[in-house]
Design brief:
By secondary structure, this protein is an alpha+beta fold. The chain folds into three domains: about 100 residues, no CATH class; about 80 residues, 2-Layer Sandwich (Gyrase A, domain 2); about 140 residues, no CATH class. About 20% of the residues lie in helices and about 35% in strands.
């Protein structure tokens, strides 16, 4: 009973949460075309490890990186002696980061460091100067500094203790932006907003809200995913204020009715617009237990005979009582009432997945089932 009540409460909370969240700001459901982040990546090495770095026999690329680094700093090493370099205090890593929009030279960004060799831990290491490149091969940022991993790994040959992932770390503000990506908004007095989830109704509502605020003809939806907006005369020379005034407007967003299920975790999430036609549902659990036992018969000591093994199979069938419940949905009930009706037959979250799929197959469910 407690489990059923808890499920009802969760469904009702989700109902009110989705109802209150249906009116959203434009900045939360759409973004300006061209205003975007850019991913950066670089190859670097970490030094200062306490014997937990890469194995010099397996990580040849780490040896090559150390050799190249020393050569650039004027240290001459015989190429034939490269195999004698000890790198247990060094690890090769990939450095990734996201360049935010409108970032200027000199500002900082966070970077993520991941080991690509067989290093055991990056704890206590320092990332050496690593250029971060964009998709066009240009250097946009340079990362360097001590990393934090929030993990540890200690042990010997017989035992080891580990917490979290010691081969992945971060440097907060560890990269300095050297080059910015040019972005222009409001070209020719025109803005284009892209909906994060394309929907005809939401796009139409967004254009209507903007027209009510700034005048008829200011905005129109040219597709379910984009809305075109003309900058009005008072804001021709101040695009930033116009964008700020547009983004705070509230729009009644809409979406397709969906039920999202994850059978691996037993999670069921129903949208507020999910509706059922009148349908009868019967639920019952069938458990089939098959067990093999062996009877062993052997002769007495020093007696003639052979040991005989006789297999015996037992089968137990346990079936819970099924209950037929009529779900009368002609009046258009809410998600909370659907949950209450299904809980009346003792359905667990995993049972709900099978029930909803069966109802969908019968044609009585108005909505889409998304299986993760």
């Amino acid at each position: 009973m407690k489990k059923i009540s808890t499920l009802c409460i969760i469904c009702i909370v989700l109902l009110f949460a989705t109802q209150s969240a249906s009116a959203a700001r434009i900045k939360d459901i759409a973004q300006l075309h061209g205003v975007r982040e850019n991913q950066l990546i670089g190859y670097g090495i970490i030094t200062g490890l306490n014997g937990t770095g890469d194995d010099m026999k397996k990580s040849v690329f780490t040896l090559q990186a150390v050799y190249n680094m020393m050569t650039r700093h004027g240290i001459t090493i015989d190429p034939a002696e490269i195999g004698n370099i000890k790198i247990e205090n060094i690890a090769a890593v990939m450095v990734t980061g996201t360049l935010p929009p409108f970032a200027k030279s000199g500002s900082r960004m966070d970077v993520l460091i991941s080991s690509i060799g067989d290093a055991q831990s990056l704890a206590g290491g320092t990332l050496l100067m690593t250029p971060l490149l964009g998709a066009d091969g240009e250097v946009y940022s340079v990362a360097q500094g001590p990393i934090t991993i929030g993990a540890f790994s200690y042990g010997g040959k017989a035992a080891q203790v580990q917490k979290n992932h010691p081969t992945v770390g971060r440097i907060a503000g560890g990269a300095i932006i050297e080059k910015s990506v040019p972005m222009e908004i409001g070209n020719n007095g025109h803005l284009q907003y892209q909906l994060r989830d394309a929907d005809f109704t939401t796009a139409s509502n967004l254009a209507a809200v903007v027209n009510r605020r700034f005048g008829p003809g200011t905005a129109y939806a040219d597709s379910p995913g984009t809305v075109q907006i003309q900058v009005t005369d008072p804001y021709k020379d101040n695009i930033v204020d116009f964008v700020a005034a547009v983004e705070i407007l509230n729009v009644q967003s809409d979406a397709t009715a969906k039920i999202v299920v994850n059978e691996r975790t037993g999670t069921v999430v129903m949208g507020k617009d999910v509706r059922l036609s009148t349908v009868a549902v019967s639920h019952g659990n069938l458990s089939l237990i098959i067990r093999d036992d062996y009877n062993v018969s052997q002769p007495a000591p020093l007696a003639d005979g052979e040991t005989v093994v006789t297999p015996r199979t037992s089968i137990d069938v346990i079936e819970d009582d099924g209950e037929l419940v009529l779900l009368d949905m002609q009046k258009g009930v809410s998600i909370g009432e659907i949950a209450t009706a299904l809980n009346a037959i003792g359905a667990t979250p995993r049972d709900l997945i099978a029930i909803f799929q069966a109802i969908k197959a019968s044609g009585s469910l108005q909505g889409e089932i998304v299986v993760l």
